[in-house]
Amino acid sequence: MAMLDITQIDARIDLLERYRADVLAYFNGTDSDELRRRVNRNALAARTAVAEVNCYQSLTIAPGPAIGGLIAQNIDPFTSVFESFHGISVIPKLATMVEQAIGVYEHLKKDTGLVRLPTTREAIDLEGALERALRPHFRKGPPGSEREVQDAVEDVLHTLGIEFHREKETVPVGPRASKPDFTIPGLELALEVKLARGNHSPSQIQEEISADVALYRTRWQRLLFVIYDLGVIDDPYRMRQENVKHFGVSVVIVKQ
Description:
The relative contact order is 0.11. The protein has helices at residues 6-27, 33-52, 91-110, 121-137, 146-160, 202-216, 236-247; strands spanning 59-61, 72-75, 84-85, 88-89, 165-166, 171-173, 176-178, 182-184, 189-196, 222-229, 250-255. Helix 2 packs across helix 3 (91-110). The protein is built from seven helices and eleven strands. The chain folds into two domains: 6-110, no CATH class; 121-255, Trna Endonuclease, Chain: A, domain 1. By secondary structure, it is α+β, with helices and mostly antiparallel strands.
């Protein structure tokens, strides 16, 4: 993230404090059209301010054993303030998330040196480099497997001089473990590659992304999905925007 001046930091602290006060007021029984308008107007700005300092996380809420039912996964608390899942509100966890972000901004304002934030410039450059480099890599013909796309991504990472691990770091899932295709420790980022083709549809890919987000968010603060499309994704822009909106993750879609 770009360096913020004192005025920008103060503005973020003020926004988050007001937003937190409003959602807690609703949680404690206050309800009015004006309160709902304020919460809705400030939701995206508050979410952005929280994500900027790596305090955002989607939520998973399971029903009580006596209730049963499906587990609600990948909940964006900022768009779910007025909802409940199995009778459980997201507001307490949302308020904690916002409070943590306020604390980070206060440390940045005081320049305590206790908070270190990786810049997003490197991540943005990475996305741009992947968009520019992957299609020329397959100028002689489309990839025949996801492994070929992974190899091409690895070449890009080497070219950029980025330190990374390939299929090395894991997230335990019961007795098994799941591995992202790449992890970049310097950016606290996990990168997953998908190949969209006839037998791997956009809906299947979206289901995989949703599952990956639930797993990998437990360990990495940033997630990047790279999709090489062989002509099956009709609306790449919508797919990218929906994943940013609902999951707060980056998606690069490169069409053959």
